[in-house]
Amino acid sequence: xxxxxxxxxxxxxxxxxxxxxxxxxxxxxxxxxxxxxxxxxxxxxxxxxxxxxxxxxxxxxxxxxxxxxxxxxxxxxxxxxxxxxxxxxxxxxxxxxxxxxxxxxxxxxxxxxxxxxxxxxxxxxxxxxxxxxxxxxxxxxxxxxxxxxxxxxxxxxxxxxxxxxxxxxxxxxxxxxxxxxxxxxxxxxxxxxxxxxxxxxxxxxxxxxxxxxxxxxxxxxxxxxxxxxxxxxxxxxxxxxxxxxxxxxxxxxxxxxxxxxxxxxxxxxxxxxxxxxxxxxxxxxxxxxxxxxxxxxxxxxxxxxxxxxxxxxxxxxxxxxxxxxxxxxxxxxxxxxxxxxxxxxxxxxxxxxxxxxxxxxxxxxxxxxxxxxxxxxxxxxxxxxxxxxxxxxxxx
Length: 396
Ligand SMILES: Cc1cc2nc3c(=O)[nH]c(=O)nc-3n(C[C@H](O)[C@H](O)[C@H](O)COP(=O)(O)O)c2cc1C
Fold this sequence. Notes:
Mean pLDDT: 89
Low-confidence stretches: 362-396
Strand order of the largest sheet: 4-11-10-9-8-7-6-5
CATH superfamily: Aldolase class I
Shape: globular
Bound molecules: flavin mononucleotide
Oligomer: single chain
Radius of gyration: 21 Å
Largest sheet: 8 strands, parallel
Distance between the termini: 61 Å
Strand content: 5-15%
CATH architecture: Alpha-Beta Barrel
CATH topology: TIM Barrel
């Protein structure tokens, strides 16, 4: 008898068997030497947990909120394009799976289904991921997202230069399906330029996205604003100054640019720099429920997953996405119980052993934060985030 996948890696292995090679490689690939993609995983593995026993954890609260929206556990779906790489129903299947797990899906600008079709199929909350390709297109997308009931705009900031992946070049990868959000524009484009011309927003470098564009964007919409791809304290402080509501710390799954740190390594720096003024989320490399606990113990509000949604989708459509999420939920519950935790609201840095090599960080708290508190290293998370009293004799 064939067993259901037991963990996310089982889903990955099965997806590999059912997907055409070029689609499979498109999903899995990272930029250049794929060092960041690998580091996104190894960094989670370097962080170890400090289990706590002899506590009653039979009742566990794992539901949480993101920008005031309820989700049943702190795992969301990252925005990714062209879900028809994995399933003919594309994003409309993914959103059903996310809804079955009562969690939030972020929908890509470059989805195959339109944002309105996804909203129609959704039973859970949605945020719209925005790629800024032109002022007109951005205004059109943002207004439509607001009208379709999306709760926030997630502006992707870490793609300032076109960066085709080497595996995709070798495979002559061609994106399947249409650009659901640009049917009107594509029609006009085809009429003017011939049916086989590439759509302008995909192939040409977009206009720059700077802090000035952010102010303009805010003037277009009352929706909350999340910046996706932000990685360092300096930018995080700018985000706070510009009234951003959330930061999704992300390396884009290592797909855009190589030779940076992993996402999870940057979370402490971003949490420290934003001092609780914005919510911090993280994606890239989350594959286990224990990774979720690690991210939250470092100060994140929630995590999200990218590649695993395609794996679930490829293996079993909406049900596969749902089951993939339920595996993470069960693993997260297990990690909570083994760490003696009964509420997602009280996870602290002291649940972790943090590698010494992860510091020092460039935050204004550099000196005061480098106090020892974990048995295997020093860590810089300010005490206001982890609830540890200042060490004797050291002014904070
Ligand atoms: C196939 C694929 C397509 C993606 N497309 C987008 C996109 O359209 N917009 C975006 O902001 N991020 C995109 N991402 C990045 C994801 O939002 C997310 O940051 C990344 O997948 C997280 O890493 P993980 O795959 O290790 O979970 C894409 C990722 C993958 C794997």
